[in-house]
Amino acid sequence: MSQLTTAHVGDVAARQLSAGSGEKLVFLHGASGLPQWNSFFAALAQHYEVLVPEHPGFGATAAPRSMRNIADMAMYYLDYLESFGQERVHLVGHSLGGWIAAEAACRNLNNVKSLTLMAPAGIRIKGMPIGDNFIWSVEETVRNLVVDQKLADAMLSREPTEEEADLLIANRYMATRLGWEPRWLNLALESWLHRIKTPTHIIWGDSDRLFPAAYGERWRALITGSKLTIVERCGHLPHVENPDATAHDIVSFLQSSALNGAVK
Amino acid sequence: MKFACFTLMPYRPLDMAERNKHRSAWVLLPNSLYDPKKGADEYDSYINQLVYAEKLGFDIIAVNEHHQTAYGMMPAPNLIASALIQRTTTCKVAVLGRALPLVNNPMTIAEEFAMLDTLSRGRLIAGFVRGIGTEYHAMGINPAFSHERYLEAHDMIVQAWTRPGPFEFEGEHYNNRYVNLWPRPYQTPHPPIWVPSQGSSETIAWAAAPERKYPFLVTFAAQDLVVRYLNMYRDQAKKFGYEAGGEQLGWAAPIYVAETEERARAEAKAGAESLFNDYLYNPWEMLLPPGYMSISSMKATVKMRKALGSRPRTHTIDSLIDSGTVIAGTPKTVREKIEKVRDQTGVDNLVAMLQFGVMSDELALRNMELFATEVMPHLR
Questions:
Q1: Which residues of B144-176 are buried (b: 16+ CB within 10 A; e: fewer)?
Q2: What is the ipTM of this complex?
Q3: Chain B closest-CA separation from residue A154 CA (Å)
């Protein structure tokens, strides 16, 4: 099981889930907010000290008014990572969190030992439109995010409590702030991804209906030496839909000799 | 009381069977369903109606702005206003309004309104709105910054109209090294600013503030809400230490007048039901994108919606008349319904929508004539 603690960064007091011991692995969550602690996180926590901070503005973590766009979020996480001193962490980000991780890594890699990007937002392939999770209904969103419709049924059958519903609204508001326009995109990002020289692993569901898997190939091409893993029969949420296989893929990469040889 | 004749300019030739294959008549409704020749005919009809309204004695003729929708064919209402100015001589021309946050430089709105005010020799009423939620899908503007952009654009426009230029405008969303309007507005200090709104308490308090005292226009609401929102404005004014005059209050509603109650109901039915069920209806995600309302209003709305349940697209002419959302009946009935709201609120501006939904020109013109001859004079 995980612990719920608070991470203090500047004026922000962020909720944070954590478990395990070893090298630090920081997971930056996607637009739907602080994730459920499932077997994916438990598997990672067998090897690492896993930290899952809630982004400012999401859920119950208040954001200062100055937190307005993805660049602000990237700078915030550089502050967060610096709080570990000289320690270098494995940075893992999913979707919006992957975008933040990539933006932060372009700026400064001092505290980043490796980068794992799961279906990150942030770039565009012209003529390859992404899905519109802002216009989809709740049901469409859930059905489009996972391949396994029985899983979608299960997710939809659970009515959120009043408290959860309030947190979901906060998530959606902050996600809109960061991702509405241009939609899940920083046009400048592509030109700076070459700055990422740390070992990088890109993971994509083969049937992602929000960000098509072709984006995975583009990310791989943009980050020199990166590895792309396509998860089969999987949508936009590999850590939810294929938790064990995805955790295994991540750990295998982090423990590979290529990575450990590459680290200076 | 002052009377405005208002139309949304809905695209009436819409194939409703096709429309019903889509989630909304906004943004995602394919524009292959739009026929440019029929669109041109629609413009002729609606502009003729508004020009005729001046002859019938209306004080104001009014248009507004919506994007990517069959609900209203005026993405650029100032173009229609310009045409109306050329064909009228005395009535006020109201743009209710321009959606300020949707532009990336509000100077263009300041300039266009100044031009219309000059072209009309001071007949312009300038409405400032945020647009409905769908507008943010249509125009790509981030709804999370809608409120901030509205307030900042307002400041920029009013300053452009009133401060001697050139000066620099320094904002968060809008920045202009040189603000120096040519032409300036015709009216001094500037055209009247009206604030049409669906009744958010933040907007009402902002409009009522003593440094603004902008007329607040409540749009499309059940009668109890109309009364509540207009009195909310009056209460706000009292809190600010003054008594709001009736000229600061407005009410926009679909109205239909006929010789008998039955006839009014029968003739208004298709127009009213299509307006609310087919043209206006939007799913939640389109109508209220995140940030369009404050987070606390959104939470309250979600809870209310859960409590009430949601029965989309089930309005009937009877339910619309019963709730007072649509005013319909004999001249006497319509007069009494309007008088009742006036007595309860002191409202002095009535924005009458006399063509709505699929209603034909023939019915709309008869409605306008009956309203102008049998209702208006009694309420002046």
A1: bbbbbbbebbbebbbebbeeeeeeebeeebbeb
A2: 0.94
A3: 21
